[in-house]
User: Fold these one by one.
Assistant:
Number 1:
Amino acid sequence: MNTIADKDYAAEAAVCQRHVDSLVATHTGIRGAVIATTDGFEIAAHVDSSVSVAKLAAMVSSLSALSEAVSRESKIGSSRDLMIDAESGRLLLVDASTGARKRVLAVLCDNRETLGQALWAVRSCREAILRELEGH
């Protein structure tokens, strides 16, 4: 049975998928992206077949929760972004929530993409998603 919630989720997923696809297509240093719920489920993804979207979504959710807990405990306010700098690239996590709908955008970058370029691209993608989902 199709409910309003199912239709809302499908519309949300379609918006997110379109923006994730565009992000990966327009930035050669961005290898993939996943938008996940904060409880670890995929909403949209564009990643190489060697990456497990389900596992990545679950881990992104956990990292986001840890980042939020550390930020609160450190008294620096609410966590917005998290970066993991690794040998062959970076993983950027940014909050992409609207109202009660909590989401995390995780982006995999290789070393061709500078940190500044990656942050600009990811934050621009997030803002475009939020504008469209909020109807502005």
Number 2:
Amino acid sequence: MARILRGDVRWADLNPVRGHEQAGLRPFLILSHDIFNERSGTVIAVALTSQPQQAGFPLTLELTTSNLPKQSWVKISQIRTLSVERIGKSIGRVSPEEIEQVVDGLNEILGA
């Protein structure tokens, strides 16, 4: 598999799940740094959706990156640590500025 890089948008296979967790093949934005992704066997990522969102920043962020196949929103509050074994094909990349906006949104939610 190609290296998993910060800013990648990739498919993640969330099955099997428990309880009310989101299931299936879902797009995720990789937030963790490249060296962490390479050495830890996990990535830190946030879920994406193609459904327009009612909640605004900091809960969601509309991506303006044009290389994604669909208009997408980052669900900033849907952060997960995923095994690299769950990570699949690349869908696209987001800009460093958008990564920083997502991190800013996380900091706002966490009160940092």
Number 3:
Amino acid sequence: MKLIIAIIQPTKLEAVKEALNQVEVFRLTIIDCQGFGRQKGQTEFYRDHEINVNLLRKVQLQIAVNEDFVEPTVNAIMKAGRTGNEGRIGDGKIFILPLEDCIRIRTGERGPEAI
């Protein structure tokens, strides 16, 4: 089992959800978050004053999958989350972590069956 954490542009959320549905990944958690990487924020103007916005709005997806679904899930996120054919700085990151256990609260099932 793996936990896939993807940080994407908010504007790409619907496209990524649709791509995940197409590879039969239906369970995910979505978290609004802020951060920056190479983009290093942006400069905005408010009432003729320049303001540096260091944190940019992002969306974090958390998806627990069995081993067979890791590559289809990652590929779906990359395809739908990329800007244009080649992508741009700020399109996001995907992290894949080992998932030691999963427990379904309702039934007490554990492991891959609980996902």
Number 4:
Amino acid sequence: MVKKELIKASLMEDKVLCENCDEARELYNISRFGEIKRKKLELSLIEAFYLMEKEKIVVLDGRNKPMSHESYMKKAKKREPNFWIRYSVFSDFRDRGYIIKTALKFGADFRVYDRGVKPGEDHAKWVVFPVSEGNTLTWHEFSAKNRVAHSTKKRLLLGIVDAEGDVVYYETRWIRP
């Protein structure tokens, strides 16, 4: 069995830029990873780490040497302090067959599309807020998250991540008595 060549990518501050190749465009076209910008696939730090773990890409450092998972994680955590919690939710959804994208313009961490739906074909079904199991949310914070979901016509999911990286989801919504 011939091992497939990994897509080469470079870490650029808070994103990862893939080489201009058909395999990189295929990641976008089939699975909707990242965004195509100036004919290159641009990935978020979380998407790139997921693809590193799935052995689809190799991220090169400034000396053009492959980065280890540990060194990549260290750099990613410097850029995003909540990286591991967010990554746990992202990878859980991807492993379950959902497309999950950032939702910063909605005021949430992620938006999630129902299985079989690609961004652009229909709207996301949920907005997701990853939370560490040890953290607490005030009623004000919880209400704000619920308002974001309601105002964007999406369902609210709280992804509670435990110490092992396992995720439990709670869906909430407004109910009129």
